[in-house]
Amino acid sequence: MNFELTSEQQMIKDMVRDFAQNEIAPKAEALDRTAKFPIDIFDKMGKLGILGIPFPEKYGGSGGDTISYAIAVEEIGRACGGTGLSYAATVSLGASPFYYFGTEKQKENYLIPLASGKTLGAFGLTEPNAGSDAGGTETKAVLDGDEYVINGEKCWITNASYSNTVIVTAVTGKDVRGKNIISALIVPTNTPGFTINSNYDKMGVRASNTCELVLENVRVPKENLLGDPHKGFKQFLYTLDGGRISIAALSVGIAQAALDKALHYAKERKQFGQSISKFQAIQFKLADMAMHVELARNIVYKAAWLKEQKRPFSKEASMAKLFASETATNVSNQAIQIHGGYGYMREYAVERHLRDAKLMEIGEGTSEIQRLVIARQLGC
């Protein structure tokens, strides 16, 4: 078993880390304070090929693997959690469904612009009354001649204000058992009746664009159906499994940033005549933090490798997302504790990591949902 990164993976890691630390990290505090979306940063990432890492070159991508993509998410999240979230969402949720389920024409029309950074991607799944219970989707799409007419509302949708199209899940009928058939539809954001609002005042990941979508008699051609109309539910479950790997990688990045700051501060801060890093109480905290960050990174890489090998990865993706997100919260909390009173101040940035980390335990399936998925995979 070889734990060493390939030369290509190491090259991507070095490139993305250099970009993130030089272009994103210096702006992270201001982005958090102003809740401004860093469109200029995404323009640069598009030109560098970062937005297309896991997609083939024929579709505008960079031809990298899933581990390379996870590494990129970690490095961007290490610099700024909000920027990392929008990056993960545009690739895993906005672009990946086109790659896995789209026709060649859909890939040409929608995936290529996403992978090459000409626009961002968004995935409209969550609704006011359908959060953890995504199967309770209430948005409906009715076929009227050659068009679907869509009515419904989505909430907490990442990147929609900066996307040319949004993939929207909607009920399109009933199966033989009388259960809802949920399909995915491609909706251009300039379609009449499609309203996008971005009025959320968030606790964390404030650099990320988060939107409410309202669809009132929105009409799209029937060829905008994405994938199998009867397998939309399974398709978005697969999409979420991949997204959980990226949220896990983002969590590792946030946790690593908190650990970096805590270690630096512990070496610099002096009390009782010596740096606090010499005290066993602080050493044990740092040791536990480092251990959990490394374990989280390892399960992220394993889940990413399984996905890349086209092996079952749902259980490992949930394990990665659960463990890494809770690690990010715990490590960030301990980093604040190590900083003492300074950790409570915005100036030292560790409080931002804690605010960013908390969403990792909620988005892409809560920690409770992850435990449920894992238990079911165990045959419970």
TrEMBL record:
Swiss-Prot/TrEMBL cofactor(s)? FAD
What is a GO molecular function of this protein? Answer: acyl-CoA dehydrogenase activity
Q: Which CDD domains does the annotation name?
A: SCAD_SBCAD (cd01158)
Q: Give residue ranges for domain Acyl-CoA oxidase/dehydrogenase middle.
A: 122-218
> Which Pfam families did the record assign?
Acyl-CoA_dh_1, Acyl-CoA_dh_M, Acyl-CoA_dh_N
Give the record's keywords alphabetically: FAD, Flavoprotein, Oxidoreductase
* Catalytic activity reported: a 2,3-saturated acyl-CoA + A = a 2,3-dehydroacyl-CoA + AH2
Residue ranges of every copy of the Acyl-CoA dehydrogenase/oxidase C-terminal domain listed in the record: 231-378
> Which residue range or ranges hold the Acyl-CoA dehydrogenase/oxidase N-terminal domain?
6-118
The family database entries (InterPro entries) matched by this protein are listed as: Acyl-CoA_DH_CS, Acyl-CoA_Oxase/DH_mid-dom, Acyl-CoA_Oxase/DH_mid-dom_sf, AcylCo_DH-like_C, AcylCo_DH/oxidase_C, AcylCoA_DH/ox_N, AcylCoA_DH/ox_N_sf, AcylCoA_DH/oxidase_NM_dom_sf
Q: Family assignment?
A: Belongs to the acyl-CoA dehydrogenase family.
Q: What is this protein called?
A: Acyl-CoA dehydrogenase
- Could you tell me which species this protein originates from? Bacillus taeanensis
The taxonomy runs:
Bacteria, Bacillati, Bacillota, Bacilli, Bacillales
